[in-house]
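Take a specimen:
=====
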Amino acid sequence: MKRPNVDSAEIAQFDAHADAWWDPEGPFAPLHAINPLRLEYIKQHCGTLQGKAVLDVGCGGGLLAEAMAEEGAKVTGIDLAEDSLAAAQQHASEHNHQINYQCIAAEALAEEAPAQWDIVTCLEMLEHVPNPAAIVQACGQLVKPGGKLFFSTLNRTPKAWMHAIVGAEYLLKLLPRGTHDHSAFITPAELDRWARTAELQLLDITGLHYHPLTRQYTLGDGVEVNYLCVYKKAGA
C-alpha cells in the first residue's frame, strides 16, 4: 500500500483555523489579499474561464475556487483537510456557487479521472506535502493535453526564510507561526525538473512580492521569495 502523500501536522494546522477561512482579517488574510492577483494571472494566460473545466488542487477553504466559479468556470476543488473543505462547501452553498468539492488526494483522482480538466491550479500547496514531485506528476495527468497548469510556492533561499518565516510569521504576524518550513521550500529549478518529467512546458514565471510599508502585494520580476508559474501540457 502506498504511503499517503500528506503531512498530518500540516492538515491539523489548516483545520485548526478552518472556521476563519473567509475572514479577510483572520489567519488567511494574505491569501485573501493575493487572490485577485492569482485570478488575474490565470485569466491572463487562459483568457476567459467561462465554461472551462477547472481543478483546484489543495483548495483549502475555497478562496480561489469560488473566484474562478464567479468567472463562469466549472470548478472542482480537492483537499485532504476535511474541516477546510466543510468551510468551503458551506460558503459556496451560502453564495449559490456550484462547486464540486471532494476529499481526495491528487494522485488518487489522477488514477480515477485522468485528462479531464482544461486548467489545473495548485497554489500555495506544494511546500506543505512530503512528496511535491508526486503532486506535480498527478497534476500533469489530470489536465487535458494542451491544457494549462498553475503552480505557486516559495523558493528555498535565505531571503525567503527571512521574508516568509521571520517576517510574515514572527514580526508582521501575517500568518500563524509554524505555517511554513524553510526546508520544504522549492526552487524553480526543482519544480521545472518535476514538471518536465510530467511532460509540461514552462510558459511563464513571475515573482509575488509583499511591500510592508504599503501592505500591498504585486507580481513582478524576482523569484527569490514567492513565485507563480504557468505550464502547458504537451499535445492538442
Observations:
- The mean pLDDT is 92.
- The beta strands are 53-57, 74-78, 100-102, 117-123, 143-154, 200-211, 216-220, 226-233.
